[in-house]
Write a structure and sequence with these properties.
There is one protein chain. This protein is mainly α. It is globular, with a radius of gyration of 14 Å. It starts with a helix and ends with a helix.
Length: 142
Amino acid sequence: MTLTQAEKAAVVTIWAKVATQADAIGAESLERLFFSYPQTKTYFPHFDLSQGSAQLRGHGSKVMIAIGEAVKNIDDIRRALAKLSELHAYILRVDPVNFKLLSHCILCSVAARYPNDFTPEVHAAWDKFLASVSSVLTEKYR
């Protein structure tokens, strides 16, 4: 799934705004994930998953750091996320569908925070970008 130059520009432009609130958006995205898809909580039995918990904020921050790495390396997401892909496939054994679910929650969180900037074109670009991230993270499962 190759992004066009216009799509890459849209992703990078919105990321510049998202990066300033990345921790909050990451935590909010995880809260959305766990509320909307409670089966995803099974991967976090040792976490306090209550709204605003330190563990939720910490993991949300890690998620958004990875998204930031993917944005920074938008032309080679595979290389940028290779270790994370291996971790989730071989060590954590996360069900690959969860990456798509989290991507959807990230889209919702970003759209809610930046409604004027999140045009249909930007939405499509971010959806394609996050689908690429999800694809890279699930490659090791194949």
